[in-house]
Design goal:
alpha+beta; 15% helix; FldA protein; isomerase; PrpF-like; OMA_tautomer-like
C-alpha cells in the first residue's frame, strides 16, 4: 500500500475503445476514500482537460482498473473498475467496464498474478463491482503476452492481438423490471441487464433519427432533459434506487441500421454520448434485440442464423455473440455472451500524482502571464 507521494507503479493501457490506468490493489491505499483521493490526483480531476494528470478530458479516457489475486475459487483475479469523473472530484464504483476489462488478463500476466500458457492464456476474472465473472483468452506464445495481431475493432486505429471475452449468464434477471416493455414519460422502453443496466428505446420516440453525431445529440437541450427524466425513473423501476449521482443505467437509442448491421445505436454514459458503445452495454443491447415484444425487436434487422449480432455505433460496429434461454417462469434469460476486443500497452512505469495540497498562486505582475 502506498500514499503515492513517491509515485505509484502503473500500466497505462488502451482496453477496447477506452483508455485507463491499471494498478495492483496492494500498491494503492486500502481505504477507499484515500485510494479515490489519490486517483483523482493521478488522473488530474477535477479539471475539464485533466491537464495535470493522466486523464484525457473525457469519461472514456479517465478510467482505472484495480487488480489483485482472487479468493473466489471461480476466478484467478479480482478486477475493480473505477470511473474517475473529469470535471468533479468523484470516483464511482457503481458499474463495470467491459472495454477496460479487455486489458485485465494481459495485465495479470504482466504483473505475475497469473502464469502464462505456452500458446494462449485464459484468465478467469471476477468483476468486483457487480460480482459477475468473465474469462479473457489471449495469445501468449512462448509464455509472453503477444500484443500485436490482426484483430481490428471499430473506433481504434490499426490492429492488435485478439482478446476473446466470454461472459457466463449473470445471476440477476435479464429484465430487472419484470416486464418486456415499460412506458416512461410516454416513451416505450425495454430495461435490460446483461452485465450493464441499460434502457433501450427507439430514437424516433424521442423525435431524433438515431443517426445524428454524438455532438449534435449532446447539444440538444430538449433531448437531454427528457433523457434525464427517463433515466431517473428507469433507475427506480430497475431497483437501482436514486441514480441522479450515478453512471447507471445507460440509455441507448435504437434506429434502423445503415451499414449491414442489425441496429444503429447512440448510447449515453449517462450525459455524454458514447463515440462507440461499451462492451457490456452492447451485450445488454444484443440480448434486448432478441427479446420478443421488446422495443428493439421491431427496429432491428433479423440477425440470421447463429448467435452473432452486429451493432452499429457512431464510429463503426461491434460484433456480439448472444443467445437467450428462459427462466422456469417463462421470462427470457441470457445464455451465452462473447465478444472479441483488443488491448495495447501505452506505458509501463511510475506515475507521480500532483501534490495533495497546492500552494497559493502568487500575484502575477502587471501585464499578466507570458
Amino acid at each position: 500500500m502506498t500514499s503515492g507521494s513517491e509515485g505509484v507503479p502503473c500500466l497505462l493501457m488502451r482496453g477496447g475503445t477506452s483508455k485507463g490506468a491499471y494498478f495492483l490493489a496492494d500498491q494503492l491505499p486500502a481505504r477507499p476514500a484515500a485510494r479515490d483521493a489519490l486517483l483523482l490526483r493521478i488522473m488530474g480531476s477535477p479539471d475539464d482537460r485533466q491537464i495535470d494528470g493522466l486523464g484525457g478530458g473525457h469519461p472514456l479516457t479517465s478510467k482505472v482498473a484495480v487488480v489483485s489475486r482472487s479468493a473466489d475459487p471461480r476466478a484467478d483475479v479480482d478486477y475493480l473498475f473505477l470511473q474517475v469523473a473529469v470535471d468533479r472530484a468523484e470516483v464511482s464504483d457503481r458499474q463495470n467496464c467491459g472495454n477496460i476489462l479487455a486489458g485485465v488478463g494481459p495485465f495479470a500476466v504482466e504483473r505475475g498474478l497469473v502464469a502464462a500458457g505456452e500458446q494462449e492464456t485464459s484468465v478467469r476474472i471476477r468483476m468486483v463491482n457487480t460480482g459477475d465473472h468473465a474469462t479473457a483468452t489471449f495469445p501468449t506464445p512462448g509464455g509472453r503476452v503477444r500484443w500485436t495481431g490482426d484483430a481490428e475493432i471499430s473506433g481504434v486505429p490499426g490492429t492488435a492481438a485478439p482478446v476473446v471475452i466470454e461472459f457466463p449468464p449473470g445471476t440477476g434477471p435479464l429484465l430487472p423490471t419484470g416486464s418486456v416493455r415499460d412506458v416512461i414519460d410516454g416513451v416505450p422502453v425495454t430495461c435490460v441487464d446483461n452485465g450493464m443496466p441499460t434502457v433501450l428505446m427507439a430514437a424516433a420516440s424521442l423525435e431524433v433519427t438515431g443517426h445524428e453525431s454524438p455532438r449534435d445529440l449532446e447539444e440538444d437541450v430538449t433531448l437531454a432533459d427528457r433523457l434525464r427524466a427517463i433515466r431517473l425513473e428507469a433507475g427506480r423501476l430497475m431497483g437501482l434506487g436514486d441514480v441522479s449521482d450515478t453512471t447507471v443505467p445507460k440509455l441507448t437509442l435504437l434506429a434502423p441500421p445503415r451499414s449491414g448491421g442489425a441496429v444503429t445505436t447512440r448510447t449515453f454514459i449517462p450525459v455524454r454520448c458514447h463515440p462507440s458503445i461499451g462492451v457490456l452495454g452492447a451485450a445488454s443491447v444484443a440480448a434486448g434485440l432478441r427479446i420478443e415484444g421488446g422495443v428493439g425487436a421491431e427496429i432491428a434487422v433479423p440477425a440470421g442464423e447463429g448467435d452473432r449480432i452486429r451493432i452499429e455505433h457512431p464510429t463503426g460496429f461491434l460484433d456480439i455473440e448472444s443467445s437467450l434461454g428462459s427462466t422456469p417462469d417463462g421470462l427470457p434469460s441470457a445464455r451465452r455472451t462473447a465478444v472479441v476486443r483488443t488491448a495495447r500497452r501505452i506505458f509501463d512505469g511510475t506515475v507521480f500524482p500532483r501534490a495533495a495540497e497546492t500552494a497559493p498562486i502568487p500575484p502575477q505582475p502587471l501585464g499578466g502571464q507570458r
